[in-house]
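Escalation from tier 1.

The customer reports that the assembly of two entities below gives different structure tokens on two consecutive runs. Tier 1 could not reproduce it. I'm attaching the input and our single run for tier 2 to review.
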Amino acid sequence: MVAFDEMTLSDGTIRPAYADLAHWLATTPKELLTHRRNEAELLFRRIGITFAVYGDKDGAERLIPFDIIPRILAAKEWASLKRGLEQRVRALNMYIRDVYGKREVVRAGVVPEDLIFNNPAFRPEMAGQSVPHDVYVHIAGIDIVRMDADTFYVLEDNARTPSGVSYMLENREVTMRLFPEVVARHRIAPVENYTDELLATLRSIAPRSASSEPVVVLLTPGMYNSAYYEHSFLADRLGIEIVEGRDLFVRDEIVYMRTTEGPRRVDVIYRRIDDEFLDPLVFRPDSALGVPGLMTAYLAGNVTLTNAVGTGVADDKAVYSYMPEIVRFFLGEEPILHNVPTWRCREPDALAYVVDHLSDLVVKEVSGSGGYGMLIGPHATKEQIAEFRTRLEAHPFNYIAQPTLALSTCPCYVDEGLAPRHVDLRPFVLTGSDKIRIVPGGLTRVALKEGSLVVNSSQGGGTKDTWILDR
Amino acid sequence: MLSRTADNLFWLARYVERAEYLARILDAAYRLSSLPASYGGVTTEWESAVETAGCGPAFSACYDEANERTVMEFLAFSPANPSSIRNCFELARSNARGIRTALTTEMWSTINDAWLQLKNYDPSRMSREEVSRFLEWVKGVSLMFDGSAYRTMLRNDAYAFARIGLFLERADNTARILDVKYHVLLPPSESVGGSLDYFQWTAILRAVSALTAYHWVYKESLKPWLVADLLTLNLQMPRSLASCYENVSHHLDELAQVYGRQGPSQRLARVTQSRLRNLSIEEVFQSGLHDFVTDFITDNNNLSAAIAEQYLI
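Tier 1 run:
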């Protein structure tokens, strides 16, 4: 299976968006690239752009490898992606509102009922409740993969607490420092206004009872969390307090933070902790990360949580497979972005097919993430396949399967020199009470191991800068 | 600002200041211990260094004997010593990381760099020369941190908390040196005498980086009561108790002004500040240097607790 390369077509032609870059790569000595790569690593290390790997004792903080060769998308390609992303997120929001509200989607037979109620991310506490401005997914990180010049698929809708946006921003900064001339020649749409857009989004969704200058904070599990760098980076750029659970308390259904000047009321919480840990009185009683009483304040409409509680109900791989129907049902439009063809193992015919074709398919747990709990058929041993078949037949509802996709490749600068590696793209979609905002770009993740399709940072994937050309 | 942020800033500054102080103590101990025996007889400088650092009991729990190797290991590197230089840097870095948004880039990278470089120092294989380079480096980190805070931080409450932490820690350090060495600083009639004292005094002054300052201020040969005066009451000397309290008081007043409210910590600081302003060194010696210093250390701790109560919890 030969993958589509985003720079060079199989006949050797360079695609137009890459013309300048290809020329520059061809005329730049290897030593310079190596030098720049080392410089980049030093920059990331010095700034402290790290992530923690759970269970890793020595390297408690690691760098995500950064590939210095940017990935380029033409303005036209982005324009259609952008329309598709907006459409998708509008539908996601309507779906979640419906799940916790009238459930028309069930009555109309679009999505099976048990997918909602048996979903571990379903929060019964949210049923019949409304959230400020009816927005649930304020920040979505939609993973997109590319098959060929014209085909983009959505791989996942990350509707809980998507991460990675700090890398999108830092990658651009580092690239501009390393290759200022190349950057200048390309007329790249800027992404640096992301944090302004995020702040505008967060302010727009403050409860109606909040003052005209709503107090927005970012809630982090703390510095041992794998994405802590991102949390502090965002709080810094947004100019808001980064708080931990112990910095907040609830009195009379109102959330306050402890400051040197006494308690201060909080209106919007951009929370980067999962639902289960938000409030020990409602969810996990052993959670030390959350704030006792937070849910009562939330349900009383006195504070906005982003993303809303329970959005994970739209964010598992079984629901994913219904997204095209969900888009049609709520918007009455044809989906612009397509799903990867998906077999739902819950359906007997699909299961039978999947079991027979395990060595060709990728099988995923419906609620898994981070590249864990999956089988990549073509790369698996006989034993692994046999073992997975047992698990699959025991709990077919837990799995979906997809064809092994020939994810597109981009040139990367690896130890051997320039070589194609598989990539995906995670653009970030912001939904406020006023409008949807998307900065042109996203986080390109790259599977730096030759032939590998796994781009997750927890599995050794890297990232690269993503350029949307302004022409 | 968040109470936790203020608390982290306060302690971050204290840890960095403490690391420098430990480096200075070790430096002074090295000098004294390398003096020929004829200048001081049997030296107890290593034990004294442990005492001055304020960790006698913790040390005895780990080692039988205080010597160059054990003391260096304990004060500089030991994970078992909560305030070893390594632990100070580690805690400072962890505090800094917890509040990166409240630090300037320069402050963060000083601490982060120090923490990264610390891994390059292996205590088990250090020559004398490397030890002294290491101690220089520690002092350099502290200077750079201090300087970057001074030059890059906004003059707001965050700055005030960092400075209050620094000056409280510095006052505590100076007081501890005085407390351990008070016997060599007794007035001449009660002096134990001998050349050992002379080198002890210079070691004290070196430990607080004040040897040159002494000569500028007093234009006299080293006299114990003048050393004590310099370190307790002299406002020109940035490590003196009096000078530290001018600063602590000043920054606490700033906070009170910004927040529009005075509290117990402002009052406590002012009491100590005015006492230090109005005393003379003769009066200190009359009532006893040791008692004076012990009281000061207690007051200083009480102020730290009052600040925590008023702002940091």
